[in-house]
Amino acid sequence: MVTPEPFDLDLTVRSHGWYDLAPWRWDGERQVLARPVRLSTGRVVDAEVVPAPGGLAFRAAARGRLSAAEAREAEAALARSLALDEDLAPFRTRAAALERERTSGRRPELPDLRWALGRGAGRLLRSPTVFEDAVKTLCTTNCSWALTRLMVSRLCEKMGESGPRGDPGFPTPKAMAGRPERFYREEIRAGYRAPYLRALARQVAEGELDLEALRTTTEPPEAISKRLRALAGFGPYAAEHLLRLLGRHGHLALDSWTRATLARRRGKKRVPSDRTFLRWYAPYGEWAGLAMWLEATTAWHGEGPPEPP
């Protein structure tokens, strides 16, 4: 699997919290990223990638013989999940120009993104399907990360089909649509999200909503955002977070964690207004959200000064 240059598997996998959610498995010591992948044939295979000379090595295991077409489909799913198809050259050009202004002293308010430019950061781990990304996004709203992990794990355990290793994959829209709202409240512990999860699954399963088309649509981000905001349970944060995973980075997708983290990184005694955050990253234009996210996650990757206590 050919990767862009520069590319760092660990940076991409740990770009945000998805790697910590089922059905992803990340072995940081061995640098192995794996998960069950459901193919268009209905089969579930276990697929994984590891660093290799010139890119990534891909492996897949199935019950019975895996055809060449099925292997290609599984490989494409992981390549898509690693955002290998996303062209970050315009972002890198813009960020490099702004970095020169920052270091010259003309724009001291800009974030220090030298580490990101040098290591090839900027690709965000996604799910093989937009449906999975949308469900997981709903599971991040107004709750702790521990609860998000619990809800997603239960979705997989109770409705996902297992691959050859026995680990459950992510449930299909049809599987989720077939469960009553009570199931999501009592078994998944989804709380107020219960009707939203069921409604989303039903719309996709019945063909009313084509989330996968959002990967390739030429619609402007504002139009996509409007469509996402029309979905039950999708407020500004959820819509902008999903836009980020679709490679549309013009919005900041601010939440309580990013606001507090950025305030600490910049030594602010109080969390600034959202208008201030927008001003900080406005020079990055359509890449403002990516620049913000890279600054917020700098410490995750051992870069820059440590955050103030």
Explain how this protein is built.
It is a single chain. By secondary structure, this protein is of the alpha+beta class. Among the domains are: 73 residues; 116 residues, Orthogonal Bundle (Endonuclease III, domain 1), CATH 1.10.340.30. Helices cover 43% and strands 8% of the residues. The protein contains 14 helices and 4 strands. Strands 1-2-3-4 form a 4-stranded antiparallel beta sheet, with helices on one face. The mean pLDDT is 96.
Helix count equals 14
CATH topology of the domain at 130-245: Endonuclease III, domain 1
| Overall pLDDT metric | 96
Tell me the strand order in the biggest sheet.
1-2-3-4
Distance between the termini: 41 Å
Order of helices and strands: HEEEEHHHHHHHHHHHHH
Return the structural class.
Answer: alpha+beta
Output the radius of gyration. Answer: 20 Å
Query: Which range does the strand content fall in?
Result: 5-15%
Q: Give me the count of strands.
A: 4
Q: CATH superfamily name of the domain at 130-245?
A: Hypothetical protein, domain 2
Itemize the secondary structure elements and their pairings.
Blueprint: H1 9-13, E1 25-27, E2 32-38, E3 44-52, E4 55-61, H2 68-81, H3 89-104, H4 114-119, H5 130-138, H6 145-159, H7 173-177, H8 181-186, H9 194-205, H10 221-229, H11 236-245, H12 256-265, H13 274-281, H14 288-296
Antiparallel strand pairs: 1-2, 2-3, 3-4
Helix pairs in contact: 5-11, 10-11, 12-14
